[in-house]
């Protein structure tokens, strides 16, 4: 249905702008705080949405659109790879484990609420 595409597109527009704003403000240090923050917030948000009784349209808008564009798997992989390529393997592994542990935990917490 066309409305589903519109819902995802509009939500994606909002999520992408939010991610860009957070990333440009917080990813200036050696640690990618902006990426960690948007992925953590997005994980919690997706858990809340999936755990609710929202209609398909709202779920597509909020989870697939906003949260899907807010979170960034590709940037996460780039950051992990850069740590690895720079010889900071311990930091790459730690960042990976921390990000996925926090993300899964926050998604579960959001779902449970």
Could you give a short description of this structure?
This protein is mainly α and 113 residues long. The protein has helices spanning 2-26, 33-50, 56-70, 73-85, 89-112. The chain has five helices and no strands.
Q: Could you describe the 3D structure shown?
A:
It is found in: Cell membrane. It is a multi-pass membrane protein. The protein has helices spanning 2-26, 33-50, 56-70, 73-85, 89-112. The chain starts with a helix and ends with a helix. It is mainly α. 84% of the residues lie in helices and 0% in strands. It has one domain. The chain has 5 helices and no strands.
Defining traits:
single chain; 113 residues; mainly alpha; 5 helices
User: What is the 3D shape?
Assistant: globular
The helicity comes to: over 70%
Radius of gyration: 15 Å
- As an assembly, this protein is single chain
Beta fraction:
under 5%
Largest sheet: none
Number of domains: 1
User: What is the β-strand count?
Assistant: 0
Counting DSSP H or I runs of 4 or more residues, the number of helices is: 5
**End-to-end gap:** 31 Å
Report mean pLDDT, rounded to a whole number: 94
Name the poorly predicted regions.
Answer: none
What is the string of helix and strand elements? HHHHH
Class inferred from helices and paired strands:
mainly alpha
Function: Fluoride-specific ion channel. Important for reducing fluoride concentration in the cell, thus reducing its toxicity.
Organism: Sporosarcina ureae
InterPro entries: FluC (IPR003691)
Catalytic activity: fluoride(in) = fluoride(out)
């Amino acid at each position: 249905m066309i409305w589903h595409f519109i819902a995802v597109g509009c939500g994606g527009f909002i999520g992408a702008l939010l991610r860009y704003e957070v990333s440009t403000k917080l990813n200036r240090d050696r640690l990618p705080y902006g990426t960690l923050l948007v992925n953590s917030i997005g994980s919690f948000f997706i858990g809340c949405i999936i755990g609710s009784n929202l209609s398909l349209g709202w779920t597509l808008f909020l989870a697939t659109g906003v949260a899907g564009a807010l979170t960034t798997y590709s940037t996460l992989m780039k950051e992990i790879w850069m740590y690895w390529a720079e010889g900071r393997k311990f930091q790459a592994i730690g960042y990976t484990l921390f990000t996925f542990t926090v993300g899964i935990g926050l998604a579960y917490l959001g779902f449970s609420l």
